[in-house]
Specification:
This protein is mainly alpha-helical. The chain is built from 9 helices and no strands. It starts with 32 loop residues before the first helix and ends in a 6-residue tail after the last helix.
Length: 294
């Protein structure tokens, strides 16, 4: 007998959505088609320069190299900018990849014009190069030039946090790659939910490096153990499809998710407590100076 399809989120559903259902955040790759297509001009430049004189062919090869390097640097610059914008506290990129990419694009275009021009002319390649670099800046912008949210933060402590965060991100990335071997959508979705929770804790530590001592075990030992458990589960489940192994792994992810979320909530409550103390101290100092706050 036919059965009408329905579910929690169907228009005529009477069951409320599960508020405790883990939610995953979809991260879109900031490197889009606009940047990927910039690898094409280098190929076209070399292909159209075969048979030319040796100096012209050399200029074409050098221009293609500059354009390829520019496209590669642009991809890294876009990802670094996306991470910078995603965080409340972040340092400006150490290497201005997008600006270097714009300069290399201008150089590559100038060399391309040189390779295909007849006679000796310096002005034309220069004009085309400057215009090309300017259009590159107009299309992709420049790198962040100033850090944000760094006022009042100890740079030494921030460097310690950066090292711990980098290690934690490596563990999370390794888990996400490893779980694909298991070929199980439920386990992958549950791991994505845990990764989201773990990254929330990472962001909290980045915003307040004082939480590093309390959370270092979570971002180091616990994530390392989770990575090892993910590797073992993927190896076992890909061969045997053992339902008990899957149940144990999902239970482990549930425990980790709850513990990481609890640690994050405690950190936020501690921050609120610190704010309350600062306000009370300020009120007391103002009262000593004869200033009364109603």
């Amino acid at each position: 007998m036919a059965k009408r399809f329905g579910g929690t989120y169907s228009p005529d559903s009477t069951s409320p959505p599960d508020a405790d259902q883990p939610r995953t955040r979809i991260n879109r790759d900031p490197v889009g088609g606009r940047s990927n297509v910039l690898f094409v001009p280098a190929i076209v430049l070399v292909a159209t320069s075969f048979g030319a004189a040796a100096p012209a062919f050399l200029a074409a090869v050098l221009g293609a190299g500059a354009l390829t390097l520019a496209a590669w640097l642009l991809r890294g610059g876009l990802r670094a900018e996306a991470e910078f914008n995603d965080r409340k506290v972040a340092r400006r990129p150490a290497l201005p990849r997008k600006m270097i990419a714009s300069a290399l694009t201008g150089i590559g275009i100038a060399l391309a014009v040189t390779a295909h021009q007849s006679g000796f002319d310096i002005l034309s390649p220069l004009i085309y190069g400057v215009v090309g670099a300017g259009l590159h800046v107009a299309a992709f912008g420049i790198d962040p030039l100033r850090s944000k949210g760094m006022d009042g933060i100890d740079t030494f402590q921030q460097d310690r946090v950066a090292r711990v965060v980098d290690e934690a991100e490596k563990y999370l990335t390794a888990m996400r790659v490893t779980i694909a071997r298991a070929g199980d959508r439920e386990a992958t979705a549950r791991l994505d939910a845990f990764i989201t929770t773990a990254r929330d804790l990472i962001r909290t530590v980045e915003e307040d490096p004082r939480d590093l001592t309390a959370t270092r075990k979570f971002l180091g030992v616990y994530l390392q153990g989770a990575r090892d458990a993910t590797t073992k589960f993927a190896d076992i489940y890909s061969r045997t499809r053992d339902t008990q192994a899957k149940a144990d792994y999902l239970a482990l992810l549930d425990d980790l998710d709850q513990n990481f979320a609890a640690r994050n909530r405690k950190s936020l409550l501690d921050d609120r407590g610190d704010l309350t103390i600062e306000i009370e101290v300020l009120r007391e100092r103002l009262s000593r100076e004869g200033v009364r706050l109603d």
